[in-house]
Design goal:
heterodimer; A: alpha+beta; ten-stranded mixed beta sheet; 15 helices; 27 strands; about 35% helix; globular; B: alpha/beta; eight-stranded mixed beta sheet; seven-stranded antiparallel beta sheet; 22 strands
Chain lengths: ~575, ~450
Amino acid sequence: MKKGTENRTRGVLKRISGPVVTAVGLDAHMYDVVKIGHEELMGEVIKIQGENIIIQVYEDTAGIRPGEPVENTGLSLAVELGPGLLTSIYDGIQRPLEVLVDKMGNFIERGVSAPGLSHEKKWEFVPTVKVGDVVGAGDILGTVQETNIIHKVMVPPTSKGGKVKEISGGSFTVEDTICTLEDGTSITMLQRWPVRVARPVKEKMNPDIPLITGQRILDGLFPIAKGGTAAIPGPFGSGKTVTQQQLAKWSDSEIVVYIGCGERGNEMTEVLTEFPELEDPLTGRPLMERTVLIANTSNMPVAAREASVYTGVTIAEYFRDMGYDVSLMADSTSRWAEAMREISSRLEEMPGEEGYPAYLAARLSEFYERAGRVENLNGTGGSVSIIGAVSPPGGDFSEPVTQNTLRIVKVFWALDAKLSQRRHFPAINWLDSYSLYLDSLTDWYDTEVSPEWNPLRAWAMAVLQKESELQEIVQLVGSDALPDEEQITIEVARMIREVFLQQNAYDAVDTYCSMAKQYDIMKAIKFYADLARVAQAGGATPQQIVSVKSKNELPQIKFIKDYEPVLEGIHKEMEAEFDAIRAA
Amino acid sequence: MKEYRTITQIAGPLVFVEKMEPVGYNELVNIVTADGTVKRGQVLDTSDEVVVVQIFETTAGIGRDSRVRFVGETIKMPVAKDMLGRILSGGGKPIDGGPEIVPEKRLEITGAAINPYARASPEDFIQTGISTIDGTNTLVRGQKLPIFSASGLPHNDVALQIARQAKVPGSVEEFAVVFAAMGITREEANYFMADFEKTGALERAVVFLNLADDPAVERIITPRLALTTAEYLAFDLGYHVLVILTDMTNYCEALRQIGAAREEVPGRRGYPGYMYTDLASIYERAGIIKGIKGSVTQIPILTMPGDDITHPIPDLTGYITEGQIVVSRELHRKGIYAPINVLPSLSRLMNLGIGEGHTREDHKKVSDQLYAAYAEGNDLRGLVAIVGKDALSERDRMFLEFADVFEDRFVRQGLYEDRSIEGTLDLGWELLSALPVEQLVRIDRELIQKYHPKYRKKAQE
């Protein structure tokens, strides 16, 4: 990457202050990766001030002294991309944690490096192009059966491409040459890509397909599009992590990248023990087979936490380039922002709001902008959807990370501590949340679910809105004082909340709800509401209407797999009961 | 070891020293004052000209004539099995008049992070004998579950009761308590010590005492010494260790004090921007490791300034720990012990440690139902204040009543009352049986048939 030979690649340490160190006597460019001290700790250049090269270090710096050597590798912080990514669990700088346990035991010591991919393992490569074919940057050369997912081996996006001179199938490691071009370029299955640079695409497309998650409040009321961005802000204990994990489990993307950024160690263990046992509802294979985990827990080095979201999004983009739909969950972006703040304050930079660096907004928008549904260089279509959790201090949404995030993302799922205290899960507030993709997704719901769905959704939202207005009155005068018609509205809204919105993540059936079932449930509630309105117009009292027994059976269908016959029975009973009311 | 007399500046707990040879970051420093007293400190910032040292004790007596010795290694804690039953200062020196501890190992006090891949999932139910914890906010081995309290509330009693009664039903494994006091009063410390002695817990406890009049900066290392000891007992010797850290608020104050002395850019309310990371380096030192017998379970105690749960200390803590037990002033005023408000309390690992094979199959559902019914009854209290009890419907009155009975019987218990988990769950059923069966929507019918007192009686007849 460097020109000339007069570059001084070795220097010495001058100052150490926590994760930030200063070196002198070497030439460096911004974001070059350097090795620090005798133990060769990994670091990255983040500031250059005359002779002083300022470096953030990805490992603990205790005991490192001024005068120790510093070596510039001349490379940017990059990840290894190729077969072997799936089912892996990495730290923030793509060191495989499983390998680290073998190398240094149960605790993370420093100075140990390990490549992101196994360089020994052999993969069965099947070419899809022939000798003489002309290939360009990003084109697919062949495939490897990685898990049940087919890994597509591509020409690196930086290559000029050319005519294929040699290519053959067989067993190869990621470093073996699998293809040679006429100009002499040899291509391996391994690509290295700098994490802070977005991988190139041909064109960004409009997001008009929803990411189906099996969560009723998300798919039904506040959908995110494939290639879209969403934020889940919520105070602690409001179920942020459970929601993120539900998305990682059930969203209908082919690949999931889950970044545990500055979060709890035990939570990552939960993911690690659960995912291999859970089945992907689409393929029936273990969820782990389509998952890449990045775990940089809160007590692992802060600079590696800063890098972890970039590592994750780069891996996501790589799978997108193969033509897959990828979901990226970042839990939590607030910890990432805090890592930036910590580094920034060590650099003695002028702080912006609440001590966060002035470039916070720019970094956040750069990150979310790497989402999108795209046409790849090789002509395939793929997407990266980014769902970022935000942990606002004190649950205060006016703080800088939440505010800067909301300016960029299109979907907002507002978690509410009050709802979770009531054990209403998922604790997503239906009045504060929004999705800006509704318009672009209308056509999809019309054709794929039912032309009735969009009006049904609008009806449900209107009922919930009306309920919140009525509740204010109820709080003052009690529910008996409301007009008959509005007492029924309150009852219908309660049904929408308890039957449709509440969903049990721990129930084997209810944890995933198909769009068809969501439609049927909502339609059943509307069915009751319509019958109730007719009955009320015919003179029935609210007590009569509310005490219809068959509606109490509705919540049960959430927990029944083949619910259709039961639901039909409920419909019939409901009609019969209302007929009886009318007759009386 | 070279000595320097090159102190250039002393500001608060920080001493600036010019030196000639390289000094490592985070290394231990001894400063010898004119009268021969040795004060310990740690390198906070090192460059080829100046070293910034943070002194753990008072800087009284340190002057430009003091001698500075750079020890050449980071702070290490000598650990041994013999530490059980000993009382140490907040800096790790024996203060019980006993002999020096003969170390079996010397360990870095910062402690490396457990590799998430090496962690085992915590799932052993710990019975504390307190219904509001066991029943609705279950503690499991390897968890970190703080007590959020405020000044004037009996959090110490709750912590002591947990330490006294905590056990894993049906297991006879060795367990130990590591107790670290940071900035608490002598009186409070005596209260803890008296209880430890009375119950014989002291024999299997290691006590670290940094009292209110001990140097504030020492509080920075006290929890780290305690956790290093706990990790040694757990992961080297196979003990199940319960670590009680009190009071984390004092720890954070000390952190702020150092931040201010270093003239750092402050974050919220003057606390340093890295407080989350710093607290994580303490709280995350809990857990279980695959293939190793012992475990570290943490119960940090903190007092919320102004009863404010959104204050940075409880707030950041809540984001790191696996839930929280909230002590309520309202319940305390009503004269209810243990005054734990279950509504804002939470145990994130509860679901891993309850149910069939751990406690009882109905545990989760009973807990959910108790929560929902109590929350509803509690909401109605607000309404009653406006419209009066008479304006309530029959159903609402029952829930209102339930909330009162729940507090009076489920929450209220004796300081020495050790309830079994079966007892707690049966009590829950008894209270729920006051509500009509069709209102128990969170519990499936089979469980109601099996455990509801109404049906149980029938079955017995």
